[in-house]
């Protein structure tokens, strides 16, 4: 059990240190260790490779402008204009593929798949085949946003929702020590996991999982960074929403995320409770893997 858990943690740190674009990391989410369709083995050799290729962390870019050149910024503004034109403003219901509905609250806007992919592509932040849209605050498009993806991974069993947040965090830090040791040997800037912003919590009634972690580079001018994730579980897979915001100004976006927890539902026939063990596919992982976790599960098909 411990060996399997460490493998998952190695994988999580490896992807973070490599900073792979989403299309390169296949269906494994950046800095979260989400195994949706692929399962890369993780060894010390991978850690060495990770350290060799690690670059210092860039300043945070809660908006989508990042470090684009002038021409890139013009293209991004055009993409924002197209996104605004195609967006749906709350309050109204918005479909997430054929799987779910978001009862979008007032003060938020939903950007459809095509326009969301264009925005993400212009910043190199890895639009993927799983991208289904983005959510922004109305009138403040460059303050924070959520990237929504749907993973048809199968039914994610929740019988491993008995974790200790402290234990998971200590596991992350243990692996981080090994990664930093390699980075120190080659003169690269080390990173530090600060702690939970939101310890992992799973709502068994509504079947959502939320967690958020803070980290930073060990350099004098380091900016705080974070990974902030929400997962909504359904019969055939899950919707993953990733919050992108200034890690030092989370009060407003955190309130927005909490509103969305009660505003999301899978449609009849696609709900978690609609699962049929004799016919439906079970995901190759449980909840722990969605927080960079541990126990591996076999793919189960009827």
Question: Helices, strands, pairings?
Answer:
Layout (H helix, E strand, L loop, with lengths): L1 H17 L25 H10 L16 H17 L1 E2 L2 E5 L3 E5 L3 E4 L1 H10 L8 E7 L6 E8 L13 H21 L5 E13 L4 E10 L7 E9 L4 E8 L5 H11 L2 E3 L36
Antiparallel strand pairs: 1-4, 2-3, 3-11, 4-5, 5-6, 6-10, 7-8, 8-9, 9-10
Helix pairs in contact: 1-2, 1-5, 2-5, 3-4
Number of helices: 6
Distance between the termini: 26 Å
Radius of gyration: 19 Å
Number of domains: 1
Shape: globular
Walk me through what this model shows.
The protein has helices at residues 2-18, 44-53, 70-86, 113-122, 165-185, 251-261; strands spanning 88-89, 92-96, 100-104, 108-111, 131-137, 144-151, 191-203, 208-217, 225-233, 238-245, 264-266. It starts with a helix and ends in a 36-residue tail after the last strand. It is built from six helices and eleven strands. The chain is globular. It has one domain. The model is unreliable at 1-62, 65-70 and 293-302 (pLDDT under 50). By secondary structure, it is α+β, with helices and mostly antiparallel strands. It has an eight-stranded antiparallel β-sheet with strand order 1-4-5-6-10-9-8-7, sandwiched between helices. A three-stranded antiparallel β-sheet has the order 2-3-11, with no helix packed on it. Helix 2 crosses helix 5. 28% of the residues lie in helices and 25% in strands.
Notable characteristics:
disordered C terminus, single chain, 302 residues
Brief write-up:
This protein is of the alpha+beta class and 302 residues long. Helices cover 28% and strands 25% of the residues.
């Amino acid at each position: 059990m411990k060996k399997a858990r460490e493998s998952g943690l190695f994988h999580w740190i490896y992807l973070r240190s490599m900073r792979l674009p989403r299309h390169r990391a296949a269906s494994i989410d950046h800095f979260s260790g989400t195994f949706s369709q692929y399962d890369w083995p993780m060894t010390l050799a991978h850690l060495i490779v990770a350290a060799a290729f690690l670059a210092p962390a860039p300043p945070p870019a809660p908006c989508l402008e990042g470090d684009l050149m002038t021409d890139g910024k013009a293209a991004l503004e055009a993409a924002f204009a197209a996104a605004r034109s195609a967006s749906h403003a709350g309050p109204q219901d918005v479909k997430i593929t054929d799987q779910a509905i978001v009862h979008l609250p007032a003060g938020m806007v939903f950007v459809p798949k095509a326009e969301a992919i264009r925005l993400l592509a212009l910043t190199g932040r890895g639009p993927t085949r799983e991208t289904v849209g983005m959510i922004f605050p109305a009138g403040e498009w460059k303050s924070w946003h959520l990237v929504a993806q749907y993973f048809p991974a199968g039914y994610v069993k929740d019988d491993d929702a008995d974790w200790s947040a402290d234990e998971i965090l200590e596991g992350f830090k243990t692996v981080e020590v090994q990664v930093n040791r390699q980075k120190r040997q080659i003169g690269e800037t080390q990173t530090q996991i600060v702690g939970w912003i939101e310890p992992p919590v799973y709502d068994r009634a509504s079947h959502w999982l939320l967690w958020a972690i803070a980290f930073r580079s060990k350099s004098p001018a380091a900016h705080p960074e974070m990974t902030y994730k929400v997962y909504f579980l359904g019969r055939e897979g899950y919707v993953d929403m990733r919050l992108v915001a200034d890690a030092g100004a989370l009060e407003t976006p955190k309130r927005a995320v909490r509103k969305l927890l009660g505003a999301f539902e899978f449609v009849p026939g696609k709900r978690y409770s609609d699962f049929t063990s004799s016919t439906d596919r079970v995901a190759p992982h449980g909840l722990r893997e969605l927080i960079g976790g541990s126990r591996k599960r076999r793919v189960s098909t009827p």
